[in-house]
Amino acid sequence: AAAASAAAAAAPKGLDPDIVQAKLTHVVEQVTGAGEEVHLDTPLMESGLDSLSAVAFRNELSRVFDGIGNLPAALMFDYPNVRAITQHIVDRSRGLA
What we know:
By secondary structure, this protein is mostly helical. The protein has helices at residues 2-10, 17-32, 51-64, 75-78, 82-93.
């Protein structure tokens, strides 16, 4: 039991990257209407997001991840793919960004 609580204490606080990635992928699919799989490293602009849908995308992420603060307007341009945005959201949840 002591080892388990030591491991829990050593684990980083904040959102779980796997959960963030799953939710983020779902939001991309919702906003783009894409029926195909969203790849982690594919630029979102190639997945069907454009400058207009980028606003809806950021707003939906702010709603889904309520508590990480305001996401930057240029989110999709600063963090161009699911992997980069996942890391950014996880870092924000841990107070690192």
